[in-house]
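> example.struct
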């Protein structure tokens, strides 16, 4: 398989994985489900129909949650709760949370999606102060 190899892990380091191949899309999803499961303004997910996922360590600690009545699915570490890659659409689509990667990405997001459902406070954020660390 062509493409890059990316390494990733959860916050506590129990789960480690490798993705071999290219990502076709990189979306910032503002839907209500992604906001709820990230606790943030949006999810940052990479999508591939061709890349392969290999668990290096901790595969038994990966938990999957499928939201009933929707196509929304989430994989996470059962120890620390960090978002992890998962197969969706009957195993045809690999979805990788961009923040779970330990290697640098050479691509930038393609688009913001589901902007019609974004949080009311998620607008003009580039205008608020920015700090290199926690302000004190």
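> example.seq
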């Amino acid at each position: 398989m062509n493409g890059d190899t990316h390494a990733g892990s959860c916050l506590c380091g129990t789960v480690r994985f490798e993705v071999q191949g290219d990502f076709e899309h990189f979306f910032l999803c503002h839907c209500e489900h992604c906001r709820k499961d990230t606790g943030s303004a949006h999810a940052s997910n990479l999508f591939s129909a061709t890349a392969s996922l290999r668990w290096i360590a901790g595969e038994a600690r990966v938990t999957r949650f499928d939201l009933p009545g929707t196509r929304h699915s989430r994989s996470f570490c059962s120890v620390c709760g960090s978002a992890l890659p998962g197969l969706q659409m009957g195993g045809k689509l690999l979805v990788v949370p961009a923040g779970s990667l330990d290697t640098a990405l050479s691509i930038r997001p393609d688009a913001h999606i589901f902007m019609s459902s974004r949080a009311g406070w998620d607008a003009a954020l580039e205008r608020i102060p920015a700090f290199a660390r926690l302000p004190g």
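> remarks
The first strand starts at residue 5 and ends at 9.
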